[in-house]
Amino acid sequence: MRKNIHIFFTINDAYSGYLSACMISILDNLDRGYIPYFYIIDGGISEKNKNKLKFLNIGREFYVEFIVVNQGLFKNLPNSSQSHISNETNYRFLVSTIKPNLDKCIFLDVDLVSVGDISKLWEICIDDYYMAAVGDQAPLHPESWTLKLPLPYDYLYVNTGVTLMNLKKWREDNIQELLFQNSAQYAEILQFPDQDTLNITLYKKIKYLSHIYNAMPVQTYYNEKQKQEAFSNPQIIHWAGYKKPWKYPNIAYAEM
């Protein structure tokens, strides 16, 4: 019997082409025993680009749903000062209530490609966790902004470009409300508002994933062991940071 797999994105119209490439990479490599459902939180996508995303010529079954959220909910929340981060990233705070029938989902940025079977990520058990993600090495730098965040000193900050989310547990513990509260409370010290807020809110119950699920070519703080783990058999390659393959064609793995 085929299984459903639920994958969320949040974008505006400018990122629709990159989302298309991301979705195709997932569909190309996903086990045929899974049917992917793509939920796209809509930050102003044109009808033309919506149709392109709905009718990808890929030769397998998949479903796409566009979801419009109340933007007024975010009027008091901070936006990122980083030019490569869109304001729509905060929309992921609503993921547990957008689809109240779902117990689990994968949430992805669009500056990545799946080079392996993403069902392997989907099948990881997170029953006792709010979220699973990969540790981000950049904040280990002694001048890191994360030192200002209300997190334990020895906590390993995670990158939220690839996350497996336990939506059932979010609803049980009212995580959505906590995300909005923390984002507003710590607005002045957040450098990456959605990612910082997820770390602040969920840090006690985060499961750490292997680096293969979020291999970041621009990550300059990998040690040799982490680098070998991430790129010996990467499942997802993520160009985190401002250097994107569509702007920097010579960046590592841009040919993917």
TrEMBL record:
Keyword hit for Metal-binding: yes
Entry's Gene Ontology molecular function annotations: glycosyltransferase activity; metal ion binding
Alphabetized Gene3D superfamilies for the sequence: Spore Coat Polysaccharide Biosynthesis Protein SpsA, Chain A
Keywords linked to the UniProt accession: Glycosyltransferase, Metal-binding, Transferase
Protein name: Glycosyltransferase family 8 protein
Secreted keyword on record: no
InterPro entries, sorted: Glyco_trans_8 (IPR002495), Glycosyltrans_8_dom-fam (IPR050748), Nucleotide-diphossugar_trans (IPR029044)
